[in-house]
Each structure stands twice: as structure tokens, then as C-alpha cells.
Amino acid sequence: MQTNCEDPVGGFECMMAALLLRRDKKSTAAHLKSDLNRTDNSSGVRQLQELLDSVLNPEKPPADTEALDWCKCLIAGEEGFEEFCKTVRSYDNATLCGLVWTANFVAYRCRTCGISPCMSLCAECFNNGDHTGHDFNMFRSQAGGACDCGDSNVMRETGFCRRHRLRTGENVPSVPRDLLLMSEMVLPRFIICIIQYLRDGYTEPDTSAERDLQKVLQQLEPQITFLEELTKMGGAMRTVLTKILTNQQTFKDLSMGQEENVFAKKNYENYLSALKNSGLVSVEEKAQTGAAEPTRGSETGEDQDGQSIGQRKRVKLSSSTKDPSIMDSLKHKCFLEELLFWTIKYEFPQKMVTFLLNMLPDQDYKITFTKTFVQHYAFIMKTLMKSQESDTMSNRIVHISVQLFSNEDLARHVTEECQLLDIMVTVLLYMMESCLIKSELQDEENSRHVVVNCSEALLKNNTYWPLVSDFINILSHQSVAKKFLEDHSLLMLWMSFVSFFQGMNLNKRELSEHVEFESQTYYAAFAAELEACAQPMWGLLTHCKVKETQEYTKTVVRYCLETLQIWFDAIGFVDELAPNQVTFHLPLHRYYAMFLSKAVKCQGLDLESLLPDQEMLMRIMVHPLQIQASLSEIHSNMWVRNGLQIKGQAMTYVQSHFCNSMIDPDIFLLQVCASRLDPDYFISSVFERFKVVDLLTMASVHQNTALDGEQERPMLEGALTFLVILSSLRIHLGMADDEILRAEMVSQLCMNDRTHSSLLDLIPENPNPKSGIVPGSCSFEEMLSAVADFKAPVFELGGSMQQGMYTPKAEVWEKEFDPIMVILRTVYRRDVQSAMDRYSAFLKQSGMHTTGNPWPPYKERTPLHPCYKGLDRLLHCKTLHIVIFTLLYKIWLDHSNMSEHVLCMVLYLIELGLDNQVEEDKGDEVRPSEHCHDSWFPGTNLLSNLHHVINYVRVRVPETAPEVKREREPPASTSAEASNFGQAQVFSLVAERRRKFQEIINRSSTEASQAVRPKSSSTRWVPPGTPPQLVTEILEIHESMLSLLIKLHQKLSAKQNSLSATWLEDMDANPNRHAHGDGITAIERILTKAATRSHQSKRSIQEICGKVFPPVAPKKNSPTAKKTMDKEERRQRARERQQKLLAEFASRQKSFMETAMDVESPDTEAAMDLGASEVKESEVLYDCVICGQSGPSTEDRPTGLVVLLQASSVLGHRCKSDEAKKLPTTDEERIYPADTCGAAHDVRLALMQSFFKDSSCLQSVSIGWDGGVYVQTCGHTLHIDCHKSYMESLRNDQVMQGFSVDKGEFTCPLCRQFANSVLPCRPGRSTEVVSWHMPSNKKTSVLVKEVEDLQEQLGFFPTESNLSKEMELVIKDIKNTTQRKYMDYGKNPGSPDNDFLFMYSVARTNLELELVHRGGNLCSGGASGAAKRSCLNQLFHVLAMHMRLYSIDSAYNPWTRLTQVAPSRDNCLDDERPEVPMLFRDCPSLLIIFVLTMPQPLRKEHFICLVRMLYNLQYTQALAALSAKFSPEERQAWSTSGTLKKVMEISPSLPYCCFVLYPRALGYLYHPIICCPVRLLLLFQEFSGLAGCLGLLDPAPQPSNPMYSASCLDWTVSAFDLMSQWCSEVTGLADTQTLLVQDLQWASPHLLHLPDNYNTIFQYYHKKACTACKKVPKDPALCLVCGTFVCLKGLCCKQHGICECVWHSQHCGAATGIFLLINASVIIIIRGHRFCLWGSVYLDAHGEEDRDLRRGKPLFLCVERYRVLEQQWVSHTFDHINKRWGPHYNGL
Ligand SMILES: [Zn+2]
Ligand SMILES: [Zn+2]
Ligand SMILES: [Zn+2]
Ligand SMILES: [Zn+2]
Ligand SMILES: [Zn+2]
Ligand SMILES: [Zn+2]
Ligand SMILES: [Zn+2]
Ligand SMILES: [Zn+2]
């Protein structure tokens, strides 16, 4: 307590501080504040410092919040912190929202309003702004973000919300000086205190450090939260904080610690060592040591354990151009800098991040913070790479960086002032350098190229993405991108970065063994190329679109070529590829290609000026071509030993997200090469790469050293298809963006109908922006409506739910279907077939082509851009023509491995050649004619070569070939051509290509220094294996391409002379007529084109057609040839046959079911005949669906109905009102469950139980409204013993489809409907029915007596038999179906009274449900679909058998009291409680009890007697209820006026129940028993109809006058006496009024009424707290029956091992639940132990679901779907209609 102080003043102040500490904080604060406001405030300042010294002591644990309380008080002054906050907030001058959110927050993005693609809005700002008609979506934040409202750098002002549009800042008064004075003085101390805690808590992460870091952060939480609170006070406070955080002087003063504070010194040391350990030095220190060596130290340490990660040795680059100052040094000059340093060091704690981001609306802060962030960029990367939680950290980094770099001004500012670009590129380079390995491409030993290792964590986990995404983000700003493109050293650096990916993930073809382990590194490789290489490329390309930017493109192209040259040298590539290798990653090629394309297309540059020499072009062509050949190899199963992953690569390469960054640039580059290189060279290279050179011989037999037999055909098809694609694709060769978009769209739609979103996903993003807001281009939506028709979503009953689909318009099929584009874009091979199937279906339907299978249509191409004209020379070169000729010849002769597809592609190439003529190249020097195959054709023009006749060809064949024998005789004819066959007709593609190569090399070798190269090539290309014995043979041909075409025409049409000599004249000139058709059409079209374009061809055609051909060689029938030719056709036919079979089977099954249904209820059938009073004597027969036998159900071998028992609360959820309850969407709205049928009955029973004898109560009501058991059947019957063995077989079956056999579940063997029990059928004859119709003329009183006697009969116990056993079993099943609590309503659980009540209530439940299924009315429903499912007849029988086991105590038999006037017994004698008075009893329940307990079968007259007596009671009850509702005056009037009749007149609306409901219930009971087709009438008619039917009235129709319900009364004793007796029972009882009024009328059950817009639900419920756990659930769900809000899957609300959703389904729906998953917009159904995803009732504007709200587009209620859902719920058909059920294990 005593300080050792000499200074009296100091001593005094010490005492003061101690004093102050003891004083109440508030008054101290007030006191200090006034001191500080004086002009001389030095003493105040001193006092404050002293106080803070003792309060803010970092040696105290941070958990001690005393210091925090002090700070709050000091800052706030006398008014208190809350009040202070409010005051400061009133000076908020911020014009930005700036709200910061973390992961999982729901935010919005509007593409219409956004300038930056990263723009986002908070829900409040979004809803308060006007975005009607905009392209916006809602999304769930992944990394966190901040609201941009009010920031015109990022979004258009029109999108600002009302609050931020007003620019509130301008009218806010300026802040009074003294308000924040204390803050300015206290906060610096507070912040340094936090920093000291952070320094002190930091330990190097070696062992358990991670946990320590977390602990430090946890302890600091209150402090950081306080800082965050401060930022929320608005602009005024943020300004103060900014000043403090950025003030260098304060930092200098406080950072080292004052005076001799040992603690402060120590933790400053700690700070310095943390810096050092991060591989960083402060600038001063660096100046001292002068070396950058310390950084390397830590690196090598890391490398040693890093090497084990990849199997291959890492490579360290020795020389790197990076600037060490970027990587290694840091100096902190203000609090902000050190705070950020620690934020990074502690791996971005969420609270800190939020605090730092909350400050951003302050512009000064934003700039300083951005600079600080950039300064620490390298450090961030290093920390990220070491982090264990790199995913979380990545998100946090981006959360910050996206706020900084999305703003163009800011990005440009830091680019100019802080070298942002250099830093980013260097950091990226440095990062990738950490995982380099030696490339094995081409030359495994001597390669000097290095590539990234895709199996390293950095690539596998995508750790680099935050940095790459920052880079892409800043490149999107034009000013920044320009800086990048102008900086050559930066470009060089970037190209070397890109080259790290060139050739990565090399695949080597496995030739012998299947690969042991399928590496999945290809994911990493494709992702890396797309994100790290292609995305920045597309970013740069957007700024190279106009003439003015030509220079940029030129520079990029130059560096690309330079880097490519370096690459070729490094891998040691000369001219031959190392065999069996392929890499899909050639980013350098693709950069080059795309910049070339842009240069020509948009910048008007001359292609020639950007191209390298021929030699370089030849090299550039090799790798992309190898990929194309490999694609074909992979699809020809040549890479099977490499596993499935290689197919994955081939598919990814062409997939929509990758294609325009991969295959498209590759094809384009090949097209460029083809347009410049010698076409003969190019064509021969293609066939050589595809390994089909050996195949291209005219001999019938050949050797192939490179391919297996079965690979030849697919490889040949691949090569030809590739050539067709190459020469017809125009994506980068002249198509406009709109045309490309259209073509993409058409090809996707042709493959399949698509939903809007899947189409959007399938259209490549570049160069087509999908948003469609780019000026001048056609939008996605416009284009879509131009090419496609919308098919609205439909729900196929019993089938799946269709979504809204787009399908091609007819004219698109007719004119735009492009098979080539489809082939290019298909990921799955089956899609090509699907497109062709759809195409032929269209042709058939429109009558354009009805016979056989059409061929892919030929499509004319847009003209080539002049720069690429050279491409057409490909079609006009001798090499190609020889190939074509050879193939036509081989196809004609049915050589092996020729297919329809080959012919199709050949014809395609011919037609392309005819349509794309080359102007005669006169400039070309006269070619030296020593070409080895020059004598084949005279020139290069296809048109003139077509009719050129080839007479002899020399081939080399094996000795065993058929030609050898045949042609052994000396050649007979010696024409001019034949004489020099020695060299003329030899055709060798390989030799040709090599010769051409040599030629080019020789030409350019004069300039090129390396002349040695070609040598290596010739030695390497030696085919393996011993060459077979070949002999040279000469074939006599005498054909031209035209003659071969005509012969093929005959062959295809199987007609001799199929083309007459004059057919050309007969052809009509309309080419459209011939656009669609098969091969015959295609040949005719080609011949016509040739004839119209060349006279010579025309003459030649006429000549050939004029000749009479000898019959075509019968080779057509050769079985092997047939096999290959028609493979496709056969496949097609097989498909058709299969479909037909399936359809047939389905219809057979259906008709079987229908017939089965007809006999389902034999009683019905029999009863139908009763009208004719013709009775069949025959016994009822049942078909067993298992053994197929037909027979009666007997005591010994009973038959049963397949039934599904299910507990149901549908009835209990009915309400009085017919309108569905509204789902609450605000806090004010609520749903009250009290008015439901279930609740009302519960209340009534409880009330009765409080007054009356329990057993009597249990006979006076029905239960089963909630949790009743509903029984339904598919109508199929089976022997019960057959069923047992069926169940046994299911139990042994391992493959179970969602149902559990142990619970007795199975599917009907015939119709596959879900079922869980078997209801035994009553044996017997239909004649029994007769007794019902015997005329009755006994008097009512006699009948009453008879009934009484019958009731007295003791229940007779049926003899034990198989049947009775089964009946008891099914009763057990019924009981087990529902929960215990729905059966025990009595006071003594388990008493027989409970059981009795439950059993007759089952009957009631099923009757009531039948009524509901008929639409709540006997007149409207009729025999609905549900009627087929009901099995009331059999059910009643089983129930009656069971009920006979109970006997009613005759003393209490209600029948006596219903029919006799008896002196009232004194009930109270033996029981404290009386019996339930008759007027309180439920008549339908009584009726059911009577019917079920009387001996079976019941006679009709007795039944009618029951009905009549009960009707009297019901009528009296109605009157009593009416009187109970009367006012006293009315009651008085009634009792005086007298007759009942009069009452009816005054009150014509006598309670509805009396008219309709009661007889209706009776009608139902009556109906199943006697199966009389009830004539149904509406409402009142229903009553009279029923009354007549039931014998209450004279059945003869009375056309007269209104009918009174009173006329149905029939009393056997004095009505007055009886009624008085009933009334006397209730007089004097409490609650009489309540019990007298019985609710009988319930509206049909409804699900909750849902709002139209899903957003209304989502906004309210996604952040609503659960009432049970008070937390906002991660997966909120909503019960659509009652509106209860539950935590799906939440452990928080789990009880007894059951999650809340399942628990609720048990209580709300007796194990059936319908839940809407709020965050997914999807509905799930829970049924018992199973659940299924039902789908969504909310669809977007395109009729599509949006599961998980991924797209976030506005969703609207689909009323039809919701109705279907409700209908399935009410009809209990979830089990039948939904197929994909799975167990939920109580975990939902
Ligand atoms: Zn906002
Ligand atoms: Zn706003
Ligand atoms: Zn908008
Ligand atoms: Zn059977
Ligand atoms: Zn069935
Ligand atoms: Zn519910
Ligand atoms: Zn909950
Ligand atoms: Zn919960």
C-alpha cells in the first residue's frame, strides 16, 4: 500500500491513483474528464496515466475484466456506457453500410447493380433497395463478406438502399470536442495492452502450440469484442480509432514499453523473435547483418520433412528473379501493422478479422490497412502454407482481401505505391517453387524442365486459391491489368510461373500390368491449370479487346513463344514424341492460342506477324495433337490399364467448365498450324499420331504394329472425326460471340432436354458471359427463347416430379442440329447417341425421314476469317484424297474394320471439300514432281480429283493375303500407268511426313543453328517386333472416287443401277430436301454438288450411271462384314426391341393388375348382381399372387389380402374451418392447435372422465383421431402360408431395398407396393348376403326385443383354426402399428376397456378416412381411387371376430336405455361415479359397438332397427344441443310453444349433424356390410337418399314438398317419456352445456397454407431460434402439418437418442411427418423408421427446384405440387408413390 516515493507530487499522485481506484469508477471518470477539459490539463493527464498504469497491467491475466470495465467507464464519462454509445452513434456520418458477416450468413448479389462481380449486400440493404426485374440471387456466404451498399466504386447507386442513398453523412452535426476526448487518451493504452497480451502469449508452433494459441485468443475475447463494439458506434468513433491505429508516434512511444518495465521489454523481445522465426527480419536488422541467409535456414528445415510428401524428389530452383525484400523483411510503424502481424500469426482469429473489417468504412483506415495488408502479403502466404487449418484460414484471408482488392481505385493506388503486382507474382512464384519436381516428359533423364508436383498438399488441397483469387480479382481492373501488361519483367516472371504447370501430371500408358493405385492427382492438376493459369489469362484477355491494345497482345505473344522455346529446349524435344505419354496440361500453348485468337478477332492484327517460323509451328502442333490422339486411344480402351482416372481426365478435358480453356484453344492452335503448314505433312502427321497408317492400304489384309485388331476401327473413326472437327469448327475462326452461344446452346439441347440451370452450367463461360448483360451481345435468355421451347413442370402421378425443361424448337432440329459440335462437347459417349436418337425421332414425327436410321446431317459452315483461309488446303491435298479413295474402296469391298461411321466421316470430308474451294495457288512455285504419290492425282483440287481414275495400285501384303493368290499371274494389261507402277502407286504416309519434315527443316536450317536434329528422329521410329514377310502385289482398280461413290450408292440401296443415267436431270435443285436422310441421300447430295460445280464431273457421273454394272459381288452377305457395317444399326434395333419389350411387359403387368383388381372384392361383384336378385351359389375364389393357384379361403388354409397398416393422425388434424391455416411468417402470427379434431376429442373425453365412470366413458366416444390405424390394400391376395415362405426368402435376400423384413415389411409380389401385414379373408359364400334382403315386416318393437336377446348371447369363441390364429395375429399387428399412448385412454392402463375402445375405434377411423377420401361427402367422391385401397369389408369381419371376445355387462347395456323407459337406477351405490348419460354419448360409436359385438352375420332388419333407435337418440341430442345454444328467452319460447314440428319451422337450419352427418356415418357402416351401391345425392338429397336406403323412410320417392328429418323418427315407446328420461340424466350436472354440444362436422384435412414467395418463409425461419434449445438451428425444419419449428439433426434437441424432427413426427403425425427444410427448400417425409426426400414445392421462374438454395433465385409456390403433396398425405400413399426410402436411425 505504500510506495517508496521521494517526489512529493509523485507521492501525492500515487496516492491519488490508489484513491481513485477505490472510488466508484463512474465518478472518477467524471472527475477526470472535467480535469482534462481544463485549459491546463497536465495534472489530469498525469492522473489518467497513473490510473491506466495500474489498471491496464498486462501482467494481470486478461480474463480479469476489471481493466475492461474501467476503460468503458473512463471512455463513457458520467453518462454510462450504453448512453454513451447512443450519443456517439448519433454523430455517425458513414455513408456506407459496411456490415461485416462471417461464414453461413445469408447475403444477396445483384448482377444488374454490381460493378465488381464480388459485390454483395446484406439482407436489410437488399430489401430496402429496389431490385425488381434485376438479375439477383441470394447466397450463403462461404468465406464471410461485407455489405457494399453505399460504395459507388463497387455498385451502381441505383441499387443503394433507401438509407444509404440519402447520404446521411452530410447532415450530421460535427462531433463535440469533449465527447471522444477520453477515448483518444484511453484507447492507445488499451490497444498496446492487447498487443502485449498477444506478444506474450505467442510461442513458436512446435508441439502443442496450436492449442495454446487458441487459449490466448479465448482469454482475449472480451477485449477484442470491446474493440468490435467500438467500431459499431459509427463514423465518429472509427475516426478516433483510425487515428490511434495509424499514429506512428504513439506506436513508437508505447511499443517498446516505457522506462524499466521488465515485462514490457520481455515481451518486446518475444515480438522480435516471432518476427525472426517467421523468416522475417526488420529492416534495421537486415541492414546490420547484410545477408538474407537467415531465411534460408528455416526453409531447408521444412524441406527435409517435405520430401516424403511426394514420392519424387523436389527440385529447388537456384536462380530466381524474385526480389528478396518482398519475401523477407517487415517493419512495423504503427499499431495497425503490428495488430495485423499478430492476426496473421494467430491464423486470422474470427473476432480480429471482424474488428479489422468493421473499420473499413473509414476511408483513411481503408487505405492504410490495404497497404499494411500488401506489406504482409508474403508473410500471409508463408503462414498459410504452414497452417494445419488452411481451409479456414483461406476463407478468412479472402474475407479480408476481397474487400480491399475489389475496389479499382484502391487496387490501382496500392499497385502504384506498394508494388502490389510484383508482390503478388513473386509470392505466387515463391509458393509454387516449394513443390517443384523434375519433369519426366519426353526425356526422363536429361529434362531440365520442372513442374509442380500435383500430389503435394499445396495443390491437392488447393491451398493456393486465396492468393490466386486475389490476383484474378486485381487483374479484373483495367488500370491494374494495363500496368501488368506494360511491365515486361513482370510478364516474364508470370510466364515462368505458367511454365511450372506445363506438362504437369504426366500420364504414361501402362502396357502390361494394370496400374496398382489409381492416382487422383488429376483433380489437382486440372483445378490448378484452370485457376492459376486460365483464369488470369481470361482476365488479361478482357483488356485486350481493341486496336489500341495491340501492343499488349504482341508482347504477351512474344513472351509466350520465348517461354515455349525454352520449354522445348528444356525437355529436349526435337521432332518425335516419346511414345505412350500424354499430358493434358499445356497452359503455355493455350496462352499463345488465345492471345492469337483475340489479336485476329478483335484487334485487327495480322496473323502472319504473330506466328513463328515453320519449324516452331511444327513443334507447337505436336503436343496438342497428341492429346487429340490420346483422347481417341482412351475411348478405344488402349489406356484401360491406367484405370478409370484416365477416362476422368479425358472427360474433364472436354467438360463445360474446362473446354474453352483447354480443348478449344488446342483445336484452334492446331487449326492455325494446319492453315500454315504443308497440308500433306499435316494430314500424314494426323494419321501417324492416330496409329492408323497401316490400315490405310488397299490390300484386304494388313499388319498393324501399333494397334490391336479391335482398336483399329475406333482409332480410324477417331482420326477421321478429328479431321472433320478440325476443318469444320469455327469457334475461333470467324464465328461471332452470339453465334457461338447459339451453337453451344443448340448442341446441349440436342443431347437432352435441359433445365435452365443445367443449361447455364453447361454453356462455357468464356468467351460468353452468361449473365448476358454485356452490351451489344444477345443475352442468354433471348437466345434461349429463340432456340428452345419451354416445357412446364408436370407431376406424373406415381412417377417422378418433372422440372421445367427446355427442348429444341422444330426448326432448330431441322436447320441447326450440328453433330460435329455435339461430338466436340460430349463428355459421355452416350450423349452423341442420345442426340441422334432425338434427331431421328424428330424426323420421324415430322415426316422428313421415316424409314431406317438417318445419318448425322451435314451442316454448312460460316466462312473462314481471311487469316485462316489456309485451313481449306487441308481438304485439297493429295494425301487426304488418297486416304479418301482408299477408304471408299475398302468400304465398297467390305474390308474389315470399316464402319458406317467411317463412311459418314469420309463423305463429310468430301462434302466439306466441295463446299470450301481453294483459289488456285498460282503464287506457289511449280512443285518438283518427285513426290512419291504424285501420280495418284494430277492436282490438289478435290473437284478435279474426284473423277480421276486410278487404274493400278501397288500394295505390300503378307504372303497369306487373298490378293497374293489371285494376282499371281503376270499383270495382263500394260497401260501407261501400269508401266511405271514401280514407284508411282506406292503410298506411305510415314515416309511422306518425314520427307516433308526434312524439306522444311532444310529450308529453315540456313537460319537455324541446330542442324543436327533430324538425325535423331530417323533412328527412333523403328516399329517393335519382327517385321512380317511382305510381298509386293499390284491391284487392278480402275475406279475414281465418283465411281466408288456410285457403287456405294448401289450397295447401300441394295439395288443394281440404283442411279439411272438421267437421274441428275431429275433431281430437283432444292438442297434442303436432301439435308436430312441416310447415306444414300448423302451420296446423292455429293454427286449433285460435284455435277453442278464441274462439267467434267457431271459427264463422268452420267457415264458411270449409264453403264450397266455386273451384279455387285455378294460380299454384302459375308457375315463378318455385316457385323461391322451395321453395328450401330443393330445396336439401335436392339434398343428399340428392348424398349418394346419393356413396354409390353409393363402393359401386361398393368392389365394383369387390372384384372386382378376386378376380382379383388368378390363381394362387390356378387352384390352388384343382387339388383337382379340373381344369386350365385359359388364360393368366393381368391388368386394367390405367389403360387398362382386360385381357390377359396378356408379355415385350414386361409387366404389374405396384402395390406399396409399405418398409424395416422390425419383425422385429428382436421379443423372446423375449411380454410387451411396460414403458416406464420412473423412473430405476431401464431397457430393454435386447440381447435383441431384431435384436441377437441381429447378435451371431451377428459371432461367426461372427470365426472363419469371410466368404463362407461370409454364406450361413449371414439378415439383414433390421432394415432388411429388405417388399413389399406393393393387388392392382391395370397395364401398365408405362401406369404410366410415369401417372407423367409426375403429375410435371406441380402439386397434389401429400404424396408425391413424384421418388422414384417415386404412389397407385394405382384405390384411391388409396400405392405406390412396380411388380412385374412372371410371364408364363405356370397349367398349369405341374401339374408339381408329378405323382406322384413316385423314390428319395430319385436325387432328391438330380438336385438336385445341377441346381445345377451354370450360371445362365442370360434374354434381354434389356422384362420382364427391368423386373425389374432393381424389384430396384434394392428395394435403394434400405433404407439401405446394412442391406445391407453382409460385410467387403468392395459384394462380390457381400453382395448375395447381401441378396437371399435379402428373401425371408426377407417370409416371416417373413407369419407375423407371421397371428398368429405358421399355424393361427390364416388368410387375414388382410394376406394380401391380400402378393405373395410374384410377388416370389419376381423374386428367383429375379435370384439365378440368382449361382453358388455347387461346391467349397463346402453340398448336398454335407448329403447326402454326404466326407473333410473341409483348408480352411485356401487360406484362413486355415474354412467355417461345417453345425451352425452356418441351415436356412431354406439352403432359400431352394437354391430361389432352382435353375433355375425347380422340380419338387415336388426341393423335397421339399431339405426332407427339410434336415430331417435341422435335427433334428441341435436335438439338438446340446439336448446343449449338458445338464449334463455328462446328456450322459454320453445318450451311453451310445444311441438317439435314447430321448432323445425322456426329453425330451418337445425344443426347440420341431424340432417346429414349421423345418417351418413350409418350409411358407411351399412355400405361395406351389405355392399349396396348407394345412390348418392347432394347434401339434403344425401340425407333423404340415405334415409330411404337405410329404411328410415319409405323408400318410395316422395316427390312432394320439403322433407323433415323428424319424419324419420320411429318410437317404440312414448317419445316424451324416453326423452324425459334421457334429459333427467343430465339435469343438475355441471358442464352440461359443453358436453351436450358435440362437434361432428370437420372440414377436410389441410396442410398449412404457404406463402407464394419462398423468401417470406426463408427470411423469417432461417434465423429463428428453436423454442426448445433457444439456439438458431444449423438445419431448421418446419412441420407442414402443424407449423412446429424443429432442429433437424441437431444434437441440441436430441432426447432419448431421438432427434427433434423424428420425435415430432411421432407426436404430431403418429410417425408420419412432412417437413420443409428451410435452408434447402426441400420437403422430406418421415414414415416410421424411414424417410425420403420428396422434392420441393417451390420452383423458380423456369419451373426448377433449387435444392439447398444454391442458385438463390426467387422461388414461388407451385400450387399443383403442393396439392399433390397434400393429397398423398391425406390418402396415405407416401409409401407407394415415393420410391427412394432410407432409414433415418432417429438422426433427423
Ligand atoms: Zn448493408
Ligand atoms: Zn444500405
Ligand atoms: Zn439490382
Ligand atoms: Zn399360394
Ligand atoms: Zn399388389
Ligand atoms: Zn407437426
Ligand atoms: Zn429444437
Ligand atoms: Zn436445437
TrEMBL record:
GO cellular component, one term: ubiquitin ligase complex
Annotated protein name in UniProt: E3 ubiquitin-protein ligase
PANTHER family: E3 UBIQUITIN-PROTEIN LIGASE UBR3 (PTHR21497:SF39), UBIQUITIN LIGASE E3 ALPHA-RELATED (PTHR21497)
Domain RING-type: 1257-1312
EC code(s) of this entry: 2.3.2.27
Pathway: Protein modification; protein ubiquitination
Bias (Basic and acidic residues): 1123-1133
Organism whose genome encodes this protein: Oncorhynchus tshawytscha
Zinc fingers (UBR-type), renumbered ranges: 95-166
Described function: Ubiquitin ligase protein which is a component of the N-end rule pathway. Recognizes and binds to proteins bearing specific N-terminal residues that are destabilizing according to the N-end rule, leading to their ubiquitination and subsequent degradation.
Keyword Zinc (UniProt): yes
